[in-house]
Model the fold of this input.
Amino acid sequence: MKTAISIPDPVFASADALAKRLGISRSQLYATALAEYVAKFQATKVTERLDTVYGKEGSRLEPRLARAQGRALKRAEW
Done:
C-alpha cells in the first residue's frame, strides 16, 4: 500500500542514510521500523492484560508445592 507521510528533515536524512548503509530501500526500512514499533505495543498490551489478571489473582504457590520445589532445587546442579 502506498501512503504519504510527513517526516522531519533530520529524521528523513538519518533514515535515508541508514537504508543506504543497510542496502535496503527506504520503503523497506520504514515498513520494518513500523512493524517493530507496532509489535512493541502489542507486547505491551499483553503485559498489561497479564498484570490485570495477576493483580486480581494471587500468584503464590501452595505451601506443599513451594516446599517440593525447594527440595528439587537443592538437588539440582547449577
About this structure: The helical segments are 9-22, 26-56, 63-75.
